[in-house]
Amino acid sequence: MKKYINFLMVLCTISVFTSCLVDDEAQNYSLNDQGPNLLGFTQATVNASVVTDGTETSIILPVQLAGPTASTFSGEFTAMIEVDPSSTAIEGVHYTLDSNTVTISSAQNLIANVPLTIITDGIDPPLDENPVLILNLTNVSDPSIVPNGRTASITVNIEYLCFSDITGKYRALEAKYFRIGVESGLSNPAYWPA
Length: 194
Hints:
single chain; mainly beta; 5-stranded mixed sheet
């Protein structure tokens, strides 16, 4: 019985101390919409896989504005795009960046695209190490908007694939699809994409 009384006293003591630690009145939830709007890429990392056939491949890196008052933002602003010094990709050899700025406007739903061109001419895969390009959003023209700490940078892993005459899309002429040992209705080749 003594054990149960001691257990009950410890439990009461813990509940008293934990209830003192939470002070709901100290939170001011009315200030939730007072923070800054954030600018960032929609992804933190992108794999750019390209076949080294001597052509250039364009990829799009979307940028968006988000935040407590982003839905009421009107107008436009610009931001600089800088190549991080830790990047191993070389401009003119592995990639070309079409512009060093991006313009975001409410007329475009606060989303903009940064075009990046991957160069394959003169590349002989497989490479010992894939080049990595890191882009940073900086110098936003509107002081009420700040670069997002999590997505203001994007890492582009450039993966060069060997060229082959058989590279391409194919359509299955015959298909069998089994689920838990039973052939499914999805065996019809019409359900299999190119």
